[in-house]
Fold:
Amino acid sequence: MSKIQMTTPLVEMDGDEMTRILWKMIKDDLLLPFIDLKTEYYDLGLEKRNETDDQITIDSAEATKKYGVAVKCATITPNAARMTEYDLKEMWKSPNGTIRAILDGTVFRAPIVVKGIEPVVKNWKKPITIARHAYGDVYKNAEIKVPGPGKVELVYTGEDGTEIKELVHNYTGAGVAQGMHNLDNSIESFARSCFNYALDIRQDLWFATKDTISKKYDHTFKDIFQDIFDAEYKEKFEAAGIVYFYTLIDDAVARVMKSEGGYIWACKNYDGDVMSDMISSAFGSLAMMTSVLVSPQGFYEYEAAHGTVQRHYYKHLKGEETSTNSVATIFAWTGALRKRGELDGNKELMEFADKLEKATIQTIEEGKMTKDLALITSIENPTVLNSEGFIKAIAETLCK
Ligand code: NAP
Ligand code: MG
Structure:
């Protein structure tokens, strides 16, 4: 059998711990036997990041701008414990944060739906994709604990000295106050990423804020989305047969619960934080989610939504058996390969991505799965496989 050829390389970002182990198994058993895999390899493992003063992370993001598509393994975000564990020169920043800052994108997360892992919400038939704005609001706020009577004001001072003042509150006793911000630029990028992604996967786009209460702040989000939609996307949406739908956040939440799924839900930063955890846990698990960063210029970075699964890695190091779910990491690869194929007009590569996803889902639906899924499946007497056994089982299904 001749292998599938690639014309342009994928940017490959290797990572840490258990997901690094899975990464190699996936390549060895599911990709290399079938594809003449072309990648530009960046080792984002913590040791290499430390050795290069984190330059490797920046280089990998720049390479993504050059080639357009990257696939990323989960990586450690260092904390105090990692400083000693890896003898780090510095507490390097989260690679995801660094990459996001360079590519300036929106993260889209969707559950991978499998028969036998039923969503808790019984009418959800199709995945719901969350698009989370990843800049500003309460994540970059300024807060005051108000000690006693007095007034709090918001003051803007322009470079030319002009002032805009708004009274927050006249305090008669102690309390709290907070100031938040966002930027038109960032909201515009967010909107374009959402519209592009909706066109990409041909699904309706929902967006919701609290504009009736927040008449300037949230209303600006609503207006920017609507203006960009009307000017740049309205006709494209009509041609694709999809809809952009704006509503209030509380109405959106009620509609989501009653819906069948099958759309993208764009959320402001805080809403996205909270709602993506609700959606992922209601659909099953973080190991059954796809995650892709889409930049407004159309660069794509695919990853798993979960971390490096540290606890399993320590077991692995002790020589104990692990049963770590590789589905999200496999889907990071298939997402990237499909997008590469699409950009290069490489049909074979796109079809391979489809087949590998199908084989993965079929393997689980036949009752062969990792421990985390065996605990929540409605399939009777599932076969619990170890990390490697599960990947080998998918390889077998794929060959068939
Ligand atoms: P984690 O890797 O997401 O794992 C937390 C727990 O969730 C695991 O111990 C495991 O539960 C379960 N789990 C997650 N993924 C699983 C999978 N694929 N298969 C089976 N079970 C899975 O989070 P963490 O252990 O708290 O964090 C480890 C490191 O990941 C941290 O250094 C953090 O900085 C990093 N992280 C990276 C990313 C990223 O690169 N995208 C995201 C989040 C965290 P049981 O132990 O009960 O089996
Ligand atoms: Mg959260």
Q: What stands out?
A: The longest strand covers residues 163-171.
